[in-house]
Structure formats: structure tokens, C-alpha cells
Amino acid sequence: KASVNPGVTELCDDTIDNDCDGGTDCDDADCNCSTWYRDADEDGYGNPDNYLEAPSPPTGYVTDNTDCDDTDQTIHPGSTEICDDGEDNDCDGDVDCVYGFLCKICDATSK
Q: End-to-end distance of the chain based on CA atoms, in angstroms?
């Protein structure tokens, strides 16, 4: 093919080694791919376990990988912790607050 030879520019999403350097798409240094994380609940925070590499963001993917529950739009690192609901609303690793038995303290220490 005329479009596949050492003198052409690599196309980054066609699964072909266009420039004959041994790399295709994101395996080719010319493509400058980034890691994108699936944001199923569309809250702006992605699932760290569901990702792909691409030169541009696919629909439904973001650069942030800090969502701890990608099925609930109200649970993410930017959320405020809600006392006594049994959820880690702000993804800080603590379900409710450290002082969850005292909601007044919990509210004061929430993000």
C-alpha cells in the first residue's frame, strides 16, 4: 500500500503500522496516547480498573481515575460525606466519618 511505508505519518487509530517502525496506534511513540478511564456514571471521575489508551478521549472516558463507585453519580472524591448512610461518599476510604456517631463533628470534618 502507498499509505504504508517508512515515509508516511503514523495514523493513531487504524490498527496498522503505517510508518513501518514496528508500532501500531498507541504502541507507536508518534501517537502520543493518554490513558483514559471509564466514567459510567458521568460524574467526571473515572473507574481506575476500567481504562484504555487512545490519542484522544473516547466518549464516556475521562483522565481522572479516582472514582470509588462508578455506578453512583453522587459518590466521588468531590462529594461531601453524608453521616450514617453506610457509604464512602467522598472516596476517602472511610465509610461515613471517623466520628460518624457524632454527626455534628462528622459534618464539621467532612470535605
A: 58
- Would you say 86 and 75 are in contact if contact means Cβ atoms under 8 Å apart? no
* Contact between residue 74 and residue 87 where contact means Cβ atoms under 8 Å apart: no
User: pLDDT per residue over 76-108, tens digit each?
Assistant: 999 988 887 889 999 988 887 655 454 554 544
Order of strands across the sheet that contains 61-62: 51-54, 34-38, 61-62
Name 44's Cβ contacts closer than 8 Å, sequence gap at least 6: 62, 64, 76, 78
Burial of 79 (0-12, 13-18, 19+ CB in 10 A): buried
- Alpha carbon 70 to chain centroid, angstroms: 10
Q: What is the pTM of this model?
A: 0.72
C-alpha cell at 105: 463533628
> CA 11 to CA 105: how far, in whole Å?
56
| Helical (H) or strand (E) element with 109 | helix 103-109
